[in-house]
Amino acid sequence: MKIQILGTGCPKCKKLAELSEQAAKELGLDFEIEKVTEVAKIVDFGVMATPALAVDGKVLMAGQLPTYERVKEMLIKASGRG
After folding, report:
1. pTM (2 decimals)?
2. Which residues fall within 8 angstroms of residue 49, CB to CB, at 6 or more apart?
């Protein structure tokens, strides 16, 4: 599973990366984290507001910093477990 954090490196983007990594480890997922920081690439995802979370190229949420529980829920669903 490729977890992609879309954002220019702002504090919220960094926090989303931390939450995502923590949740994926807790869930025992086989994952890698990719930080997409180039604005052109972020726009290619169709994202206009950051931070955004994508898994395997599919955007799950954008424009907000979700709670840890919400990140876990999204990763569970994206992994096919939920």
Report:
1. 0.94
2. 62, 63, 64
Phi first, then psi, for residue 31 (nearest 5°) are -145, 165
Q: Which of 3, 6, 13, 74 is catalytic?
A: 13
Q: How far apart are CA 7 and CA 42, in angstroms?
A: 7
Which tokens in the block code for residue 16?
Answer: 């989303």
pLDDT digits (tens, 9 = 90+) for 18-51: 999 999 999 999 999 999 999 999 999 999 999 9
Tokens of 11: 């504090």
The DSSP code for 79 is T
Q: Is 13 a catalytic residue?
A: yes
